[in-house]
Amino acid sequence: MARPVIRVERISKRYRIGARQPYHRFSELLSRLALRTLTAPRDWWRRARTAGPTTDPEPEQPTRGELWALHDISFEVAEGEVLGIIGRNGAGKSTLLKILSRITEPTSGRFGLRGRLASLLEVGTGFHPELTGRENIYLNGAVLGMTRAEIRARFDEIVAFAETEQFLDTPVKHYSSGMYMRLAFAVAAHLQSDILMVDEVLAVGDVGFQRKCLGKMGDVAKTGRTVLMVSHNMLAIGTFCTRALLLAKGRLELDGPPREVVRQYLESGSCQEAQRSWPAEPAAEGAVARLLAARILDEHGEVAFDHDIHRAISIEIDLESFRETAALDAAIFLLNADGVCLLSVGACLGSSLGMSGVAPGRYRARCEVPGGFLNDGIHYVTAFIVRDKQEAIAMEKDAVSFLVHDYGTGRSGYVGKIAGAVRPTFPWVVERLNGLGHSPMNNESSASVR
Amino acid sequence: METPHSRADDELDWYSARSPYKLADVFELWRYRQLAVILALRDIKVRYRQTIIGLVWALLQPLTQLVIFGVLFGLLGRSPVAANVPFVVSAMCGLALWQLFSQSVAGASLSLVENQSLITKVYFPRLVLPLSSVLAVLIDFGVACGLLAAIMAWYGVAPAASLLAAPLFVVLALLVAAAISVWLAALSVLYRDFRYVIPFFLQVAFFTSPVIYQTDVLIPAAWRPVFALNPLAGAIDGFRWSITGQGGFPWLTVIVSLPLLTVLLGGGLFYFRQVERTFADRI
């Protein structure tokens, strides 16, 4: 095994949350100072009595009002490894990168690094809108840890990569967002470091830009530099990484070959987000109906958060009607990660059941979204009830969510994100046209592809 | 795997929760000097970009104050400075240094809050931010010194031989500014109240420092030791003395200032270090 360049030993990080949120007002500081002064002798006495070795303390047990974003994490990274870090939101991935890039300190534990580290937690850190492209290259480079001489040496390369030659002396506030991103990534891509840490950088920009970034990431990985990347793009993790870590609730769940870790992660998908119910309360005065539950089901009717892009997904809504109504619809909005509403569908309870009105009682409505229709990524469902075809009542925003995965089957080599709010597999007809005639050839040379 | 302090260990640079009792890593700060300079240049460029008269703004402020206080003291019929130096020259000495101090404090105190995006995304010694704000103010100070030279030429006041000591007092003023800024910068990360405290503080400091008057002319002798508790007083008195040569070296204010400044700066760096560890989490 090659020499370790990163060694993490029992890192833990605690955040205070909720009511223990530290003082943000002056009055709180004053009261704290007063309290400190009063209790200082006691604290001093306690500390003097319990003085002992302070190295390598046992990570404390979580108490109320505290959140252990990371709990006792240890691992080693060898030179040239490309390590992917995956896990759900809040699993501690970003906290880990922030600690390793020294933005924040661990509560306990330590880590060792060898060589120069560059961390890229965001594209365009430190860009100032009033400054020109040229000035921002120097500024951003310096912020990322490059010396002036290094930036000067790579300046032309950066500009060429960003394709912004003619706007170099224009303030970046006049740039299009695409140009801005290209320039920002160009600086980052030309960082010279032994260790590179990247957080979700690939998730931004247009398709062409993402393809370029992915290509550059691949190049970086090939040069033998050590790379740590946090991503939700399972395909990128599976393609570029030589090893992956799975974090769950601040703990290191799994450490192994990327494909295996990715599979485990997807299979262990928690159902929390895919299912929700609302407590039964007595009907309010004048209430017509209310939502009872919403859930996301896979093909087998099981509640599931993770779904294969080629398979059908069902959205199920339970509701209760309190009184006789002329018309009651169960309806949903389906939104993607960008908050774009992809579609709005509803079921008319009365006509679906062959009745003229809706009697009081409980109802269940299920809508199936066929496989090969949605794009990959997270989707949010807003559930609501429509009364008399007019009024939306009992709306629950982001009631449930689910993640559509593209496992890479059916793609021909391209690993970037495929553009579009949805990705339906519409039939294509491909024909071969001979240069001689103008009319399409017969059936022998045409094929239909699905 | 559990092989602490093996040979491989020695090749790694180890980091852990750092001791809060370490003041500031001067060597590390020095390694990040280019960043400090480039951030200072950014501040300067941004300040005067899209302004028509640019640096002239740096002149207008002290000029206006000179006129206002000149008229005010004229109406009162009492000169707050030694009689053998024109009021305008003496006051300009004070205003030049005051401007350096107040702009440093105002800029540096908010430097952390205004650069949150940097603090939460990249590592560098956080002290770089207040220091670069102080650097950025030096250019305005240069302009003010030019104005001072012009005024002295106009009134035919020749600089004294003690002029050579002037940089010392500029450094002293910068240190006072740094000491106060380090406190205010760290405090304003945690308590946004300080955004409102700073202008108030500066206004009080303006009148309690010998900016538009001379300590040994306006302040009664009995009160001078108390007055000298303001560390800025020593810097301004000294600067004025070094330029105009009037009144002798201000021993009292400088000597009382120095230990106070040390305590203020040391305490500030200590407090900064205490909260620096959690800036990224709490800003």
Number of strands of chain B: 1
> What would you report as the Rg of chain B, rounded to the nearest angstrom?
21 Å
The H/E string of chain B reads HEHHHHHHHHHHHHHH
Radius of gyration of chain A, in angstroms, nearest whole number:
28 Å
Helix-and-strand structural type of chain B: mainly alpha
Major sheet attributes of chain A: 6 strands, mixed
Structural class of chain A: alpha/beta
Helix content of chain B: over 70%
Instruction: Identify the quaternary structure here.
Output: heterodimer
Description:
The complex is a heterodimer of chains A (450) and B (283). In chain A, helix 6 (207-222) links the parallel strand 6 and strand 7 (226-230). Chain A is globular. With 450 residues, chain A is of the alpha/beta class. Chain A is built from 9 helices and 20 strands. In chain A, helix 3 packs across helix 5. Mean pLDDT of chain A is 80; it is low at 51-62 and 440-450. Chain B has helices at 7-11, 26-31, 33-48, 56-76, 87-109, 111-114, 116-119, 128-155, 166-190, 194-208, 215-218, 224-227, 231-244, 251-276, 279-282; one strand at residues 13-16. The two termini of chain B are 37 Å apart. Chain B is mainly α and 283 residues long. Chain B is globular and about 65 Å long. Residues 1-8 of chain B have low confidence and may be disordered. Chains A and B meet through strand 1, helix 1, strand 4 and helix 3 of A and helix 1, strand 1, helix 3, helix 7 and helix 15 of B.
Brief write-up:
With 450 residues, chain A is of the alpha/beta class. Chain A has helices spanning 26-49, 93-100, 133-143, 148-162, 177-189, 207-222, 234-240, 258-267, 349-352, and strands spanning 4-16, 66-78, 82-86, 108-113, 117-120, 195-199, 226-230, 243-248, 251-256, 275-277, 289-297, 306-308, 313-321, 328-336, 341-348, 361-369, 377-387, 391-405, 428-431, 446-449.
List keywords for this structure.
heterodimer, A: 450 residues, alpha/beta, five-stranded mixed β-sheet, 20 strands, 33% strand, globular, B: 283 residues, 15 helices, 1% strand
